[in-house]
Amino acid sequence: MNNKPMTELHEQVAQNLGMRLDTEGGGMYGTFGGFHVLVSPTVANNPYILAVDISAHRSTGPLTKNDCKQYKQNHPQVKSLIQNGSCIVMTLKKMQGLDALQDGLRENIASLVRYLQSEGFTDCCQSCGAPHVDPCYISGSYAMLCRECFTRLQQDRTALDTHKKGRHDNIVGGIVGALLGSLIGVAAIVLLSRLGYIAAISGVILAVCTLKGYELLGGKLNTRGIIICSVLMLVMTWFGDRVDWAFLVANEMDTDIISAFRIIPTLVKYDIIEKSNYYVNLVMLYLFTVLGAAPTISSTIKNRNLENRLYRLAPIEQNVQGPEF
């Protein structure tokens, strides 16, 4: 977690509640009433909207929809409560400010733990249901796992990484996929323009389709794939803009598309097509292409970094004791 103010706020909250902060993943964790509890942000860069995770089970089965609905009605700060397998997730409404955040967390964690105790739930591994769990960070998210399940996950991840390293990406397939994706973007440029919309917006479509096309047929979007897609996007954005103008010129001059495509430079040179209009349109199209490509590339790089992160947090039983309530 690289948001310093958010880290400092959660570190203070965790300390005041007798919890610990995982500064890398951004989650707070501790023990409350015999349950291991994880608290993490539900919205990136918003430290005041949090979810509370507990892994627990009971002999009579999981919480029903009616149980969750009733619990939410009785606790006004709770936005939602769901159980998926043994994972119980309570999402809280926004609590602004340090005092409101730590008081709201303390009250709602205590309420949830008391409720689970009264309903016969016990702490368990999220995977196999065994007791004696530790919070673990797994590729961008958290889970409560026993040591046996965590070790098995490590072994599986090592085998998968070895397989991935031995597998080469399909460059030819990736280029074909990127080209097909970029052609969808070109079609979007022309279609949106013909419908009277701002064609530049379709630059986002061109960027996303190009990158996703490479990933779909190339197997993975690595650094080489990003470079190939970037070059292709530069070329196809220009091509899409030229095709868009060609349709307009062909309609005005009553000629075919290919002839119109060829004479556009001449029309721009002699200002029959206003230079300012032509170049502003092209620049806007490139701008929207960048706006579409940037988050996709950023997300790909981030996910690639996260997929190899796997670690068990410090055992709570020995290091962190939750407050009495």
List the helices and strands and how they pair.
Blueprint: H1 4-16, E1 20-21, E2 28-32, E3 35-41, E4 50-57, H2 65-74, E5 78-84, E6 87-92, H3 98-118, E7 122-123, E8 133-138, E9 141-146, H4 147-166, H5 171-194, H6 202-218, H7 223-253, H8 257-269, H9 275-306, E10 310-312, H10 316-319
Antiparallel strand pairs: 1-2, 2-3, 3-4, 4-6, 4-7, 5-6, 8-9, 8-10
Question: How would you summarize what this structure contains?
Answer:
This protein has ten helices and ten strands.
Question: What report would you give on this structure?
Answer:
- This protein has 325 residues and is an alpha+beta fold.
- The chain is 57% helix and 16% strand.
- It contains 10 helices and 10 strands.
- It has helices at 4-16, 65-74, 98-118, 147-166, 171-194, 202-218, 223-253, 257-269, 275-306, 316-319; strands at 20-21, 28-32, 35-41, 50-57, 78-84, 87-92, 122-123, 133-138, 141-146, 310-312.
- Helix 7 packs across helix 8 and helix 7 packs antiparallel against helix 9.
- It is elongated, with a radius of gyration of 27 Å.
- The model is unreliable at 318-325 (pLDDT under 50).
